[in-house]
Amino acid sequence: MSDIKLINVKESILTDNDNDALFLREKLEKENVFMLNIMSSPGAGKTSLIIATLKTLQDKYRIGVIEGDIDSMVDSEKIVQNGGHAVQINTGGDCHLDSFMIKSAIDTMDLDNYDVIIIENIGNLVCPAEFDTGANLNVMILSVPEGDDKILKYPLMFQVCDVLIINKIDCVKMFDFNFDALMNRAALVNPKMKIFQVSAKTGEGIEAWCDWLSEKITV
Amino acid sequence: MSDIKLINVKESILTDNDNDALFLREKLEKENVFMLNIMSSPGAGKTSLIIATLKTLQDKYRIGVIEGDIDSMVDSEKIVQNGGHAVQINTGGDCHLDSFMIKSAIDTMDLDNYDVIIIENIGNLVCPAEFDTGANLNVMILSVPEGDDKILKYPLMFQVCDVLIINKIDCVKMFDFNFDALMNRAALVNPKMKIFQVSAKTGEGIEAWCDWLSEKITV
Lengths: 219, 219
Description:
Two copies of one chain form a homodimer. By secondary structure, the first copy, chain A, is α/β, with parallel strands linked by helices. Chain A has eight helices and seven strands. Chain A has helices at about 10-30, 45-55, 75-80, 100-105, 150-155, 155-160, 180-190, 205-215; strands spanning about 35-40, 65-70, 85-90, 115-120, 135-145, 165, 195. Chain A has a seven-stranded parallel beta sheet with strand order 3-2-4-1-5-6-7, with helices on both faces. In chain A, α2 (about 45-55) crosses α8 (about 205-215). Chain A is globular and about 55 Å long. The interface of A and B includes residues 93 and 174 of A.
């Protein structure tokens, strides 16, 4: 027997998180609530996409938003200004949301009042990919100004997502963004990933995304 | 005495990192090498700014680049294609560079051949802010498409940086970016932070940044 005692903190944290996420997903299923988790770099347009989605689907579903930020209530305020309901999580430094934080937020919500919960994760292409939030659908936004090579650099994020939304396509002429190169890379890393091109600003592509999402919402 | 043994992993990791960073800074000072650490969101323009800086200062200084990525050699290849020297660190999942990784990279370099080392950190506004790399100067890039509200959401990153470079100013008309709001927020969070407006793509503002950087390089 070795004299060295190994404490693998990260593995233990991730296992605990996965177990909590599983329970949360089962709980939401029983309550007939569908949850999606939106991830991206800072400033790729998570809040704008959520507002566009709220406006398109608000007559069909009762939607709640869980806003994750290191600090500030900026995004929650925007959601409320646009007629939505928001619960703000401030992580105080943590770079991702985990299933315990989501459960804490959901515990403050009366689930009888919601069909859909949208999580806006911390703006980060690394750590959020490792933590199952308990959502039914993982969505990532890549904005055109970030470039078409992000799959090569942050592969896990693109692997764990069911949907890739390419945002800010209204300004594609300003940037050197190769859609074919991106599609080829996506096909290699995650061939099942559904891809949409949208502009949350102009509304282009939002209907196609919302139509597809409506088919997935099984409540 | 309590029966509970608390293992504060994060605090211990950060203390070890700070000690390593201190030693590294002293070592580089003795070797007359100045090091800067460039941080930003994914796709804000770290590699483009480094290439523009290399081209402007290559006749004045011998510059080496340490490229940090989760995966891939894409950025190192770009640096080499543009006549630079690069050492690639692939973290394999870690969301930031730390002083141990930087020391490992520097150990592969003959410091007699360099005046300046530029670190390109992982694209992430959260975790890299917590880890001193041993650099003399912390630089962050905020690109116009990300928006003017990032200081509110990722305050630590803006607090630890000596310089804020606002990149992609050539496409400011396409985005709702309020420079005055940003300046006011920056003055509250980090009044000593030097701010430049540049376009690494068109070259606008690069000379002013490089002139200022030359004054800081004390080798």
